[in-house]
Amino acid sequence: MARNSPIEWTHHTFNPWWGCTKVSPACAHCYAEKWSRRVGLKLWGEEEPRRFFGDRHWHEPVIWNAEAARARVRRRVFCASMADVFEPREDLHPWRLRLWALIEKTPWLDWLLLTKRPEFIGDLVPWTGLWPENVWLGSTAENQLWLIRRVKQLARYPAVVRFISCEPLLASVDLTPILGLVDWVIAGGESGANARPSHPEWFRLLRDQCLASGVAFHFKQWGEWSPARESEGSSRRSLQLVSAGNSVLVVRRGKKLSGRQLDGRTWDDVPRRNSSAKR
User: Which of 66, 81, 106, 268 has its CA 20 to 30 Å from the CA of residue 14?
Assistant: First the structure.
């Protein structure tokens, strides 16, 4: 959990528990698993336990909500950066029930529920018909296959905001089949020692389609790899990527040095909450 989260598209993060099981290519180099191992915990896999927290941890969002209410400014909470709220495990059910109650208790917080398991949403949420107006529902879409599979599931639910996170972006993604079903696209490259590079044109395609269709676009980061500068040539730290006949040299310079500018600017769009369109 983190107040004032370093994640660019949220204000805070909250984890109802730690731990998960990998389900798709985006999970291959999971940063959350690496972090848990770094602090001496083995929490990934179907047979491994999950890490739970006490009352003090669960009270933090109540404090954030009170602060937001006093300031009359809504705050976004990413839930969960170290888990998946919709992982279908029996031992998680009591903690999910506590989470749903917490969401309803904190109306000044917009809860961003990002999952790789949207097929289980309907079985695990308590809401039918109208959903709380502070729930934003999202799913990871690292390539076209998972985009179509997961957005079809998201579209079944009347969240005030539906979004996709194309991070890590592992292939070119065409939004055409799902335009009108999502309000926000977050995109980013992979970071870490085993990071897979993303072709710059994949990000540009997402941005341009969002701009043309009125969907909010957020470019989170290049990740480990970013486009070579004019003065840079091939080296041991570079790769030539080709996509749709477009060849480009990318350089491994690390997340911090790669930055998050796309074509000379940052893209930090956030969608408007629009409950009437989905109810």
Answer: 268
- Classify residue 137: in a domain, yes or no: yes
Non-local CB neighbours of 29 within 8 Å, separated by 6+ positions? 168, 190, 192, 194, 195, 196
DSSP strands (E only) in 156-211: 161-166, 184-188
* Domain contains 213: yes
| Distance of alpha carbon 257 from alpha carbon 253, whole angstroms | 6
Contact 136, 113 (CB under 8 A): yes
User: What pLDDT does residue 234 have?
Assistant: 81
Helix (H) / strand (E) containing 251: strand 246-252
Instruction: Report the pLDDT value the prediction gives residue 279, as an integer from 0 to 100.
Output: 43
In-domain check, residue 7: no
- Report pLDDT for 5: 82
Task: Please spell the DSSP secondary structure of 197-219, one letter per residue.
Answer: P--HHHHHHHHHHHHHHT-EEEE
- Cα separation of 217 and 268, whole Å? 7
The answer to whether 79 and 13 have CB atoms below 8 angstroms apart is: yes
Residue 274: pLDDT above 70?
no
246 falls within a domain: no
CATH number at residue 45: 3.20.20
Cα distances (Å, whole numbers) of residue 13 to 111, 254, 279: 9, 24, 28
| Percent of residues, the chain, with pLDDT higher than 90 | 90
Domain range for 101: 12-225+256-273
Q: Which residue has the tokens 């701009």?
A: 211
- DSSP state letter for 20: B
Query: How many domains is the chain partitioned into structurally?
Result: 1
The average pLDDT across 28-56 equals 97
